[in-house]
Design a protein that fits this description.
- The complex is a heterodimer.
- Chain A is elongated and about 60 Å long.
- Chain A is an alpha+beta fold.
- Chain A contains 5 helices and 12 strands.
- Chain A has one domain: 2-Layer Sandwich (Ribosomal Protein S5, domain 2), CATH 3.30.230.70.
- By secondary structure, chain B is of the alpha+beta class.
- Helices cover 27% and strands 29% of the residues of chain B.
- Chain B contains 4 helices and 10 strands.
- In chain B, the strands form 2 sheets. Chain B has a 5-stranded mixed β-sheet.
- In chain B, strand 1 and strand 2 form a beta hairpin.
- In chain B, 51% of the residues are buried.
- The chains are: A alpha+beta, B alpha+beta.
- The interface between A and B is medium-sized, with 34 and 33 residues.
């Protein structure tokens, strides 16, 4: 495991590797790690997924609550997506109120799902102005060995697509499958050794610079983008990344499709 | 222990609603070494409960005011994931999780050889993914396996077990319905290798005789579960499973 006290040495090592078109893991520049996706794996969640992405592990649980609709949207349900970077996931995480890092993770995943329009919010209304479903997505990172954004985004959409609205528990009819029309997918690229790579691992994040996360919808349009951490990039770099992103999102969408009916 | 007498929890033939006999535990599965980021870790599925535990350390204890000059500090966090219960729970600590964390930390401070690591800290992170009665016990069991997986010396592994009382009958390992509508619950952390008890809580109503019966059930169950914990560790290090 990389130590926090030698980032300077690590950065030099990563730069040397990048100059030879190599990565510390032996992967290619745009090659991701092995992914295992499991859905419907948490007993008390209304929708759930577990993603093992290399050594990174993320659980997502979806729950529903009946709420009074927001006054400016009296005929709509609502969506909430939060992330917890609990101290279980890495020695670097401390207990306490949500950190800026966990809030960013939750909000980036939230935007990708919300803006894709994959959930028909009006269909979640039961009585206008009185009661509507709130869909709550909770991201629970269990092991952070790099690229928690993509692992969380994948688990979130898989859990949504497998979610059941618990109408019977709230005495408002029979349970039914949540309608999720689209599958937004997030891909994250990190500058390591001066160039961008896809799916940075723990050491690459430690010795790397800024990251770019992009969520693409089924039609290839963008639904959320986020530049995080210290560093800058050029328009040409973004354009190259978007090409890779389109291919990779398609593959990950097929993976989700294969696990959810 | 609400609703005493309102709900039928035993069948006419004396068996329980889920078909178990009164001294039968729910099925248990344990895996060691499930969290790559951690120094030691474990996964426990006990009935419908699902728990993961990570251990970090021994590491420097900071801020310095928490350091103990002659031993390590055991820092436990028992946390329920928001989706672990039927009604979603708000993320973050509450009074219940703080209390469980405190008594769990004190249990492990009594069994881990803390005197070997002065001024340091050992972090035990217990995450409840699915809660259906008995999560504090599953957490104790998971933490013991995770500590062993991290190579931290202990006088023995604490095993989390519970017995309780339903319809005036002492039964082993209460499930959700029995916990909600039963008359008593006695969770314990037992070290089968020494016979010591490192953790105990109780609520409800038990006679002296019933307590004795419940303890007998707990000790027998702990000995059995200890074998499963040991097998999980062997599978990890002797390559039995993987």
């Amino acid at each position: 495991m990389a130590s926090q006290v030698v980032p300077q040495l690590l950065r030099q090592h990563l730069a040397n590797l990048a100059a030879d078109d190599e990565r510390i893991s032996g992967r290619g520049q745009w090659q991701g790690r092995e992914i295992e996706l499991e859905v419907d794996c948490l007993y008390n969640a209304d929708g759930s997924a577990k993603v093992v992405w290399g050594d990174t592990i993320v659980y997502v649980g979806v729950k529903f609550e009946l709420r009074e609709p927001y006054s400016d949207r009296p005929t709509s349900g609502s969506l909430m997506c939060g992330a917890e970077l609990r101290p279980v996931a890495h020695r670097k995480y401390e207990p306490g109120p949500p950190s800026p890092e966990s809030i960013e993770l939750g909000r980036v995943v939230d935007r990708g799902i919300r803006e894709s329009g994959c959930i028909d919010m009006d269909a979640l209304c039961i009585v206008p102005g009185e009661s509507a479903w709130m869909v709550i997505i909770d991201i629970h990172v269990i092991s952070d060995c790099g690229n928690i954004f993509d692992a969380a985004g994948l688990a979130a959409i898989a859990a949504l697509r497998n979610a059941t609205v618990p109408a019977a528990r709230y005495d408002v009819g029979e349970d039914y499958k949540l309608a999720v029309a689209l599958t937004p997918i997030i891909c994250t690229f990190t500058r390591v050794g001066g160039r961008y790579v896809y799916d940075a691992d723990e050491e690459e994040e430690l010795g790397g610079a800024e990251r770019l996360s992009i969520t693409l919808g089924d039609n290839g349009n963008m639904h959320s983008m986020q530049k995080g951490l210290k560093g800058t990039f050029t328009a040409a770099e973004l354009s190259e990344i978007l090409d890779v992103c389109a291919t990779r999102c398609g593959e990950l969408r097929e993976l989700v499709d294969s696990k959810v009916e | 222990m609400g609703g005493y007498g309102d709900v039928k929890l035993l069948n006419d033939d004396g068996s329980r609603l889920d078909g178990r006999s009164i001294d039968e535990s729910r099925p248990i599965e344990i895996k060691a070494g499930v969290i790559p980021a951690a120094d030691g870790s474990a996964w426990v599925k006990h009935g419908l409960n699902e728990v993961v535990c990570a251990v970090y350390g021994p590491m420097e204890a900071h801020p310095r005011k928490i350091q103990l000059q002659d031993q390590a500090v055991i820092d436990v966090r028992y946390n329920m994931a928001p989706f672990s219960t039927s009604d979603r729970i708000r993320p973050g600590f509450n009074r219940r999780s703080r209390e469980i964390s405190k008594v769990t930390a004190e249990a492990f401070a009594s069994t881990v050889m803390v005197e070997r690591y002065p001024r340091s800290k050992i972090r035990i992170e217990i995450e409840i993914l699915s809660a259906e009665a008995g999560t504090r016990c599953a957490g104790l069991t998971a933490a013991s396996v995770a500590l062993a997986d991290a190579g931290i010396p202990m006088r023995g592994m604490i095993v989390g077990v519970a017995s309780g009382k339903v319809e005036d009958t002492v039964v082993l390992d209460l499930d959700k319905a029995e916990d909600n509508y039963g008359q008593a619950d006695l969770p314990m952390g037992i070290m089968p290798t020494t016979g010591e008890i490192a953790f105990m809580q109780m609520d409800g109503d038990l006679s002296m005789e019933e307590l004795q019966q419940a303890m007998d059930y707990n000790f027998a169950a702990a000995a059995e579960m200890h074998d499963i914990m040991e097998a999980a560790l062997r599978a990890r290090y002797e390559g039995g499973d993987e």
